[in-house]
Design a protein that fits this description.
The protein has 369 residues and is an alpha/beta fold. Helix content is 45%, strand content 12%. 41% of the residues are buried. Keywords: Signal.
Length: 369
């Protein structure tokens, strides 16, 4: 009887091993996959390898933290630049994640300051995301000083709807294991771009009002003469930007008399510089009153989006408002305030338009006084 029992026991054990032995190898594979090395090609063409997915992160340089927050919020952050600890107003990514300001300072931050390797090392991150480095040498130098993988991000030349933003978000997702969230954000950006294009691409040139965007922020607040050629938000809605006559791209300061000569049908004023424009109006009301857009009540606001580089979600919300003002029939189903909240929620998980409007004024006609 004992022999029969022993034989039966052996048969059962053999069968169990045969049927379920594969499970132990699958468990090993799963464990191995978690520790597999990750290699990404960053925005200056460097191949950067991490031993595993990062669970402690720093994001330094203009706009790096913002891109990170679009993907992970405050999760995994080990430290923050001092400049991000200041006022949260105008930075929706900080308005939604105020706890970030309590993290250990890892350097002064700001566009004109270099990274601080010692302070970065003090929080022991697994990876450094940076927008400071615009060349391989400076990125390699920081990596050499810290012995921490450095991944260079970029907003490209246009920020809003620039493919470099998509690429940067995808790298953040791959390094932190947040690929599905990244796909949500990237797909949303593309859907907004395609929607704006579809609504406006077939409008005939002679049916478009001429337009101008003034008081645009560029390392600070400026007056009506601060503008952009090849302005990305006008491009998004196929607007007739009078500045494009200059053939210039990006931020420029025009001669104010040139604006009188162009005399656009509609003018948008960035609320970041609205106070500067109002003060200038008090000194020289005749100049502004000679502009057709001012005389005809065609002066409009746009929310400021440049704070330590571009708040992409605010810029896209502005683009919808610009489209609504320029071509009301093409945007008759759009309520800019509600659309703005949809955009903020898609990027940061929270309705923020009312708070932005409280701080800056929101979407509206402007009266100079």
């Amino acid at each position: 009887m004992r022999r029969k029992f022993s034989s039966l026991l052996l048969v059962i054990m053999f069968t169990m091993t045969f049927l379920f032995g594969g499970c132990s190898s699958k468990t090993t594979e799963t464990t191995a996959s978690k520790s597999e090395k990750i290699t990404v090609k960053d925005l200056v063409g460097r191949e950067v390898t991490l031993n595993s997915k990062a669970s402690k992160v720093v994001a330094i340089g203009p706009g790096a933290l913002r891109l990170y927050c679009y993907v992970n919020g405050s999760k995994y952050l080990a430290g923050v630049e001092q400049t991000e600890k200041g006022s949260l107003i105008g930075k929706p990514y900080m308005m939604t994640n105020p706890d970030i300001a309590k993290l250990t300072a890892i350097g002064p931050g700001g566009p004109n300051n270099a990274p601080d390797p010692e302070k970065i090392l003090s929080v022991k991150p697994d990876v450094i995301f940076t927008t400071y480095s615009t060349d391989k040498a400076s990125a390699d130098e920081l990596q050499s000083k810290t012995n921490i993988p450095v991944v260079v991000l970029s907003y490209g030349k246009e920020s809003t709807f620039d493919p470099n933003v998509d690429n940067s978000l995808e790298m953040i997702g791959e390094v932190t294991g947040s690929e599905s969230r990244v796909q949500e954000v990237v797909n949303y950006i593309k859907s907004c771009k395609n929607d704006l294009d579809k609504r406006t691409k077939d409008i005939a040139e002679n049916e478009k009002p001429s337009t101008y965007a003034g008081a645009l922020s560029a390392k600070g607040s400026h007056g009506i003469e601060s503008t952009q050629g090849n302005y990305s938000l006008f491009k998004a809605v196929h607007g007739k930007n009078v500045v494009d006559e200059t053939g210039k791209t990006g931020s420029i300061m025009i001669d104010k008399e040139k604006l009188l000569k162009w005399n656009p049908d509609k003018i948008f004023i960035d609320e970041g510089g609205l106070q500067v424009v109002q003060e200038d109006y008090k000194k020289n009301p005749n100049y502004y009153n000679n502009l057709s857009a001012v005389k005809n009540g065609e002066l409009y606001s746009q929310m400021p989006y440049n704070f330590y580089t571009t708040n992409i979600e605010t810029a896209i919300a502005d683009a919808y408002y610009l489209g609504k003002v320029l071509y009301p029939e093409k945007f008759k189903d759009i309520e800019p305030e509600k659309k703005a909240d949809e955009i903020y929620k898609a990027f940061l998980g929270k309705d923020l338009y009312s708070e932005m409007a409280k701080n800056f004024g929101g979407f509206k006609k402007i009266t100079l006084r």
